[in-house]
Amino acid sequence: MNYSPAGFGLRFFADFIDFLLVSLPLGLLFALLTGDGLTSFGTGWTYNLIYLLYLTLLPLVWNGYVVGKRMMKIRIMRVDDEPLTFKNMILREVVGKFLLSSVTFGISGLVSLFMVIFREDKRAIHDFIGGTYVGYEY
């Protein structure tokens, strides 16, 4: 495993960009169609499903990138340097982030934050579960 891991700052800004790109357009569309406010869309299961699909499927077709990571010039890669698979992304995003965070009431997310900040390899819990890391473009 020979790579240059991306740190917390780049990963945070990439996630923030993705959040804005998905949340604002979908929230506005939801508000226009239903007449409800933006906050009711963000708390529903529809938003979570759409965002989860975005984070899980786009890296498969775009070589490890989502829009925010592409802008920050980092991407999701497998530790064995093989191409990402559906299994990697399901384990990383659905099991490692969504389900584990739900079961641990967010504690796993907090632990992952400290892992990315303090570990030399910058891998979080979901990276270990999915067999992935986030690194710089080569």
List keywords for this structure.
single chain; 138 residues; mainly alpha; two-stranded antiparallel sheet; 7 helices; 66% helix; 7% strand; globular; cell membrane
Structure notes:
The protein has 138 residues and is mainly alpha-helical. It has one domain. It contains seven helices and two strands. It has a two-stranded antiparallel sheet. Helix 3 packs antiparallel against helix 5 (86-103). It is globular, with a radius of gyration of 15 Å. The mean pLDDT is 89.
Give a quick summary of the entry.
It holds the Pfam family RDD. This protein has 138 residues and is mainly alpha-helical.
Topology:
Layout lengths: L7 H27 L3 H5 L2 H17 L5 H6 L1 E5 L7 H18 L3 H12 L6 H6 L1 E5 L2
Antiparallel strand pairs: 1-2
Helix pairs in contact: 1-3, 3-5
Structural class: mainly alpha
The sequence of SSEs as H and E is: HHHHEHHHE
Number of separate domains: 1
User: Which stretches of 5+ consecutive residues score pLDDT under 50?
Assistant: none
Total number of helical segments? 7
Number of strands: 2
Read across the widest sheet, the strand sequence of neighbours is 1-2
* Average predicted local confidence, pLDDT: 89
Gap from first CA to last CA: 14 Å
Helix content: 55-70%
**Judging from the principal axes of the Cα atoms, what is the shape?**
globular
Q: What percent strand?
A: 5-15%
| Rg value | 15 Å
